[in-house]
Structures are given as structure tokens and as C-alpha cells.
Amino acid sequence: MSGLPVARTCPGLGEASDLKFPLGAKFREPLTETRFQQLFGDAKQELEPLAEPRLSRLCRQWRRRARACSGPGAWRLLLARLPPLRWLPHYRWRAWLLGDAVAGVTVGIVHVPQGMAFALLTSVPPVFGLYTSFFPVLIYTLLGTGRHLSTGTFAVLSLMTGSAVERLVPEPLGGNLSGIEREQLDAQRVGVAAALAFGSGALMVREDPGGNPRWGPWGIGPGEREGRVSCAGLGGRGALQRVRAPSCSDCASPPLQLGMFALQLGVLSTFLSEPVVKALTSGAALHVLVSQLPSLLGLPLPRQIGCFALFKTLAAVLTALPRSSPAELTISALSLALLVPVKELNVRFRDKLPTPIPGEIVMVLLASVLCFTSSLDTRYNVQIVGLLPGGFPQPHLPSMAELPRILADLLPIALVTFAVSASLASIYADKYRYSIDSNQELFAHGVSNLISSLFSCFPNSATLATTSLLVDAGGNTQLAGLFSCIVVLSVLLWLGPFFYYLPKAVLACINISSMRQMFFQMQEIPQLWRISRMDFAVWMVTWVAVVILSVDLGLAIGVVFSMVTVVCRTQRVQCLALGLAEGTELYRPLRESRKLLKVPGLCILRYPSPLYFGTRGQFRRTLEWHLGLGEGGEEAPKMDGPPDRVAEPVRVVVLDCSGITFADAAGAREVVQLASRCRDAGIHLLLAQCNASVLGTLTEAGLLDRVTPEQLFVSVQDAAAHALQRLEPTGPKTCTVWV
């Protein structure tokens, strides 16, 4: 066969053997699985946990948790759930305090305009973005393990939340609302956004029987409630409106609790691969850019939601372009002309600048002063932020009505929250050589969303922009979050009136400029093409689905497609014929070298893929081809052997199972059928290096009814040594294993 190296054949009986043994080699007898357990393990103890009933295991776990309810156990639990108790006693006050203070103040200054901007993206009043920049940051400082992680408002989550809010609480077609009607509409939207935060947090927080927080149901009793939503400042009235917020969010109902408990949906976060997350954020950045065009141009257009929303928005903007406001267009152009170069300067000179230039807050102050002195809001009808109410909203429980309508939005928001936050925390933990607790991170973000929703906050997570800013500004620990909270708190308590005349077009520009890093992720596409074509396909499919359809559907399509690629990869593997490397005890694929030795009558095969219903057909065809048990399909690999000699019939076959990570019932039955066919054909089948899980599945499928325990070996070397001993009349007299 062309393209494959020719393997040499070991000499037969009566021929001079040219095998060279390793220098100082020692020998032992081949070990079967049974013999290995007799010498080095206790098979009885190994089988007991497998045979233990599930109820007994649960009782044992609960007894262990009950024993932990002591003084030392409670202290260990407190240390695990409150990380500051571990790192604060070892805090280097002289070396780290200044860096944390500068970084925290810098991030807090950015949180103020960015929080208000992302609130508009969420379709709620700007002040609720400040709340979301305060409470989650404070809670994560107390519960999080990421020393360099900055939490708060995130563009992708704001976009996803805004789509749900617009769908559930649409603005009337006329658009001409009175002050009271506007307050009521905003209050309902705030209720939906807070309910989404509550529901996504409830999904992320649950204690499993082992004591680890997992995704699952956790909430309060079912029922419909009316939430008191503060509308202070929404219309300058400061009144409290009692509205029926259609929030539905919580996993509070018992059926949902049982469903989430049974499904263990937290494992879905593992399927958010890096290409899926990066394509999702890049596509969402394009959605953010297009959704902010009406605000940039001063066009009072309704927000488009659902599939093809991006193209619908573009069509509406192009249609209404002649009605754009010159004043707001000028403000937007000047804002982008300042924000974009400042961000570039911060990136290019990050090592030379003592602290990043706060371009956002400078732009906010300049625009507010310009609008106040020129009366742009009255003379040119420029949309402004208005009065930001001082203080905090009254805490209340979000409503739990309309559960079926919002349930579909909870899982994507919760997945994106944890996936983005966990990936960012892992990146900086690896960079600065410390460890994070993924379970505690899940707990921290869940509690952060859960508690902050009581104060009318919308869903939040770690953010790429502010995390990078915190690191560049010299942040060292979670203490920087406290300084960030102090800045936001000062705005909420005292400095809010200074943002009264801030044009909303400036906030739209801040939204667009904050997408810079997400857009630049597309520069990695050529490198991804060179590294892995499959990952490139996952990236492109996810990005196209997000852009054309929506963020939620794009996320679902990306996850499903990435899982399909994993299945396809398992079906494209090839069964490898192994040969002995002369002078060693190593067996390598014959295609790798011409110097590998092949024993006549012995076939050593390695199947490097899980054996399940999707690969059983390929497994059967491949083994039939190699062993001559039937006609192989076109996809069967070619035999690695010398073309100029007539191959001797296979008498012994060694199946290396080290690459079979798991086997299902269909795959196990395929191995049992193979053992039967080999026995009928006079071929001695040996299995080598099966892991405990695969061996247990094969045993339950009836493998030991077809083979004896003496045909199961701990390694390929042991099985090959036994095979050579069996082939002694026609092969080399080797019956020991080199060690």
C-alpha cells in the first residue's frame, strides 16, 4: 500500500532472531487483571462501592455532613464560603493597598457611565445600572475567589435581558406616554429585569449532597406577588408605584425545583467551549452596535427583538435616516472621536501610564456641561438622562408570575454568566499563579444575582473591559471592589444630580466603545483556522447564528454544533495496528516507522475512541477487516504490513483498550459478539489495559461468558508476551515482560 511504511516481520521458528533487549533489562511473568488484583489490590474492597445501593450512599453522605455540624466543621464551612477570612489575614497592606485603591477607584469611575449606558441597553432607567454596579460588586468581594475579577454590568447579558424585557413589556405603538404611564412602564420593565437576575441566580445556587454548590433549584415558595418598585426619579416625581411585574423568573415552584434537581443542568456550562463563547460575544457586540444606532442618530425607533432583529433595526434606521437629529448626531460623533482614541492610548501605553485614562467619565462631564450651558435638551430636543434618585430602592421580592414566558430566558443568561465569569477568573488565576474554586465562583455569582435582584438590579457577571482595566491599574485582590463600590456609592448618594443633563447619545457611544475588545476577538480567526479547522467551524457557525437569528438561539446552535463536532471526531478515528520497537518493550503504530517488528500470526490493535452506539459500526467493520472475519467497508483502514509477502492468518489478536474511555451497552455487546466470532474462527482474543469502568460494562454485558479472566491483561506488553508464548511453535521464544 502506498504511503505507509513497510513493517518488518519477526523471524519464525528456526530463524536467527535479531531482537535486541534493552540494556539492563529485567523480566517478569505476564500479569492478567486477576493476578494483578491478587498481588496489588483487594478486589473485594474495589467491588463493594460499586455494589453499594444508592440509598446507602446517600445516607452515608448525610451522616458525614451531620458530623461536619460541629465547631471545627462550621468554621471550615465558613472559611470555604467567605474567602476574605482566608486571604485578609495574609494581606500585604503596604505592598498592595495603594494598588487596590487606585485600581478600585479607576474601575468605579468607569462603572458609573458604563452602568448607566448598559441600563439603557437593558431597557431600564439609567439609575438601575448604578445599582447593578454596586450591589453585585460588593457581594462578589465577600464571596468570590478571583483576585483580579471585576463584576458588574456586562453588554451581552444586558442585551439578552433587554430582549426579554422588550418582549414581555413592549412599549405602546403610539409611544406618547404621560409621566405616570412612563413610570408604570419602567417599573414593569425593572420588575422583569430583576426577576431575570433572581431566576438566573436561583439556578446557580444549590447545595448538592456532597456540599458543593451546583446549578439547581433554590428559591422561595410559589405564588404570585406584587412587587413594590421604586420609580423615584423616573419621571421626576419620586413616587412609589405598586405594579404587577410580570417576572416569572424564579425556580421557586416545586415542579421546577424537582426538574432542575433531576436534570442537573449545571453540566451544560461545560459545553460552552472557547470558540462558542468568543463567537457569542463577538456577535453580540455587533447586535449592541446596531441597537445603539437609533440613539446615536436621535431616532425614536422601537427596539426590534426576535430573529433577524439586527437586519430589522438596520432597515428601520435607513428608512428613518432623514429624520435624524443633527444635534445628537454631532454629540455622538464628538463622543466617539474622544472615546475611541483614548481607549487606543490606554492599550498601546498601558505599561507607561500610571493609570488608564478615564475617557468615559471625562466625556460624561464634558457632555453634561455642554448640554447644560447650551440648553440642548430644550432647544434641540436632545434626550437626557434626567434626575437620578438618591439613595437605594426599597428591597422587595420580584414577582413570580408569568413563569412559562420567562423560563426560556433564564438558562441562557445563567450559562453565559457563569461561563464568562469562570473563564475570565481562570485566565487571570493562571497568569498570576493562584487557584480559584470553581464551585465557590458558581456560588458567588449565583448569590450576587440573587441578592442584588432584591434591589432591582438586572443580571450581572464578570466583565472583560473592567477586569482588564483593574489589572492594568495595579489591582491585587478583591479589596479593589470595595473602593469601586465607594465611588458608585458617592454617585448614588451625593453626585447624582450632576448627571441630570447627560445626553443619552453619549451613553450609546460608551456602549459602542466598550465593545472594542469583543470586536478584536475576530482577529484570532486566522490563527484558529491554522490550529483547528473544527474549532474554526464552531466559531463561524455560532457567530453567524448569533448575528442572523438572535443571541439566545445562536448560543443554543453553537452549543449543539460543538457537541456534534465532538461526536464526529469520535467517528473519524482509525484503528491502529501496533508493532514492537526493536530493542525496547514499546509497541507503536506500524505506520510511524519501518523499523517496527510485526510477529506473524499476531495482530495488536488499538482503538483510540469511546465505544458507543455511534462508533460500534465502525468498530465492527475495522476489526472484521484486520482479522479477516468478513468484508470491510470502504472506510476500513488498510492493513499495515509488507506487500510482498503473503500474510499469515491471524491466530492471536490483542485489543488495546487504553483509548476506550467509556463503553455503552451497544458497544459492550459489540465486543462480546467479537469475542464469539473470534472463538468460532479459532482466533485467541486478548484484551489489554481496560479501565475499571469499561471492564465493568463489558463484564455486565456477558464478556466473561465468552472469554476467561486469563485473557484480560493489565498492559499491551503483558498481553503480547502471553501471545508470543502461545505462538511459540512458529514465533520467537519470548514469554516474559521487560521492566
Topology diagram in text:
Elements: E1 8-9, E2 27-28, H1 33-40, H2 43-51, H3 54-67, H4 71-81, H5 84-87, H6 93-121, H7 127-132, H8 135-143, E3 151-152, H9 155-168, H10 179-204, E4 227-230, E5 240-243, H11 254-263, H12 274-291, H13 293-297, H14 309-320, H15 326-348, H16 359-374, H17 376-379, H18 403-431, H19 438-453, E6 461-462, H20 464-472, H21 480-495, H22 504-513, H23 516-520, H24 525-531, H25 533-548, H26 551-571, E7 576-581, E8 587-589, E9 596-598, E10 602-606, H27 616-627, E11 652-656, H28 665-680, E12 684-688, H29 692-700, E13 712-713, H30 716-726, E14 737-738
Parallel strand pairs: 1-9, 10-11, 11-12, 12-13
Antiparallel strand pairs: 2-14, 3-6, 4-5, 7-8, 7-9, 7-10
Helix pairs in contact: 6-16, 6-20, 6-21, 6-22, 8-19, 8-21, 9-10, 9-18, 10-18, 10-19, 12-14, 12-25, 12-26, 15-16, 15-22, 18-19, 24-25, 25-26, 27-28
CA-to-CA gap between the ends?
Answer: 35 Å
Class by helix and strand content?
Answer: alpha/beta
Average predicted confidence as pLDDT? 78
* Count of helical stretches: 30
Q: Shape from CA axes?
A: elongated
The Rg value, from CA coordinates, equals 32 Å
Total strand segments: 14
* Uncertain residue ranges: 1-7, 12-25, 43-52, 207-266, 632-646, 731-735
- Biggest pleated sheet: 8 strands, mixed
In terms of DSSP E residues, the strand content is 5-15%
Helix content: 40-55%
